[in-house]
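fyi for ur records
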Amino acid sequence: MNTLSPKFINQILHRDCVAGMKELSDGSIPLTVTSPPYDNIRKYGGHPFDFEAIAKELWRITTQGGVVVWVVADQVNAKGSLTGTKHKQALRFMGLGFTLRNELTLTTVSTRLPQKTRYAQSSHTGFVLSKGHPRVVNLLRDKPNKSAGQFKKDWAARSEDGTMRRGHYGKHIPSFGLRSDVWTYQVGGGHTTRDEISHPDPMAEKMAEDLILSFSRPGDVVFDPMAGSGTSLKMALLNHRSYLGMEVHKPYWKEAVERLAEVEEQYKKRLDDELNPKIVVPNRNGDLKMPSIVLPHGNGDAPKMPSAVGLKRNFASLNGVDRFEKKGSKRDVYYTPDNAISLLLPFLPANKVIWEFAWGQGHIAHYLQLHGYKVVGGPDVDFLTEYVEANLLVSNPPFSKKDEFLRRAYSLGKPFAMLLPADALVGLARYPLFAKHGIQLLIPNKRINFVGSGNTSPNFNTFWLCWHLLPQNIVFAELPPNGKGGAQ
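which gave:
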């Protein structure tokens, strides 16, 4: 893949996209997400739309394995017929060499004007076109399974001749499966976007986000040659991608530039908060206040990202559960039982990516994956110094490092759940964190039966310390037998 020139990174260019794309080098764009004008439904300033030239340039600038997502719909012409333009465009893309990987039906839940001779049109088509085999595919898993949790012994599928083929499956059915090629979004009334924009038909932000997450990695460039008000560019930035946009209509270009300037400020502040978390401290009266400066480390230097130097990972497995050991700390050598993890299942959203940040042998990750969740991380990822893109964090961290792990988790600004000992609720280091950010507690009705060195059970209680995850600040849960769970 050729590298896009730095002068184009995080830019919105005011120009015709054909002329603009000619400035880009061959094979420099890994993902394009765009929605062109739908026939003549709207004028958009009356600028010409040269599909043939746009398609050829997109083929040229797309990297090998790159993807173009072309979101489009047909107009009803004067004869009362759909134009069929979108399928003509798809066929032309294929004629240039693109592979049509998916034809997504993107439906919107909104009120449509009634029509006398046809059902109201409430869907768009998202053609997913790849240049060769796609380099990135992250299929979203949020479709509820009716038989979730049941053990499926065998599988069956029908062959081309109509006969049934059967085989051994031998797995529990996860809670959620892969979504289909029909995606539904609420639009209008603050659902499309909460930004104040004048563009008459912006792409729904959630739709753009889902497309970006499905076909790109963090750090990739997301390109929109007809950027409009900049929705795809905004969602690229907020999901740790770079962006490049082009817009020929000056009012929309100006709006997109102003919108992204605000988003970039928010994004920079978010990153600054992650790297330099500010905490509140109690004054002499016991009240809470924000200090004028962030608290320094013991050496007087400004706070830095916690270092993992000295942390020794010694992973082992016992009865299929994790071990995350720091030398010299006995309470770090306890393993996560299934029933402790199961307490979280009612509160984990289905369509989010979970970072298991103290991986061990991957038991927590495997358990969550078995129940339909997408889990990222790994034994070689250092939570204290590295970043993995995810929507929420779940793990049983080493208890001796709980302060560092809590500071890091809060700084990332993502919902999290950590399995911690009950005494983690008190402590001078943790009190300012809890006072500033708040906490949620998922408390089991009895002691979790961990297993430690020598098969001894620990003599302390534990709970899930959560943030922005539970429906209320304290939830009491009945600890089930291993593999089953529920909360009350």
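Residues 277-331, 483-488 have pLDDT under 50 and may be disordered. thats all i got for now
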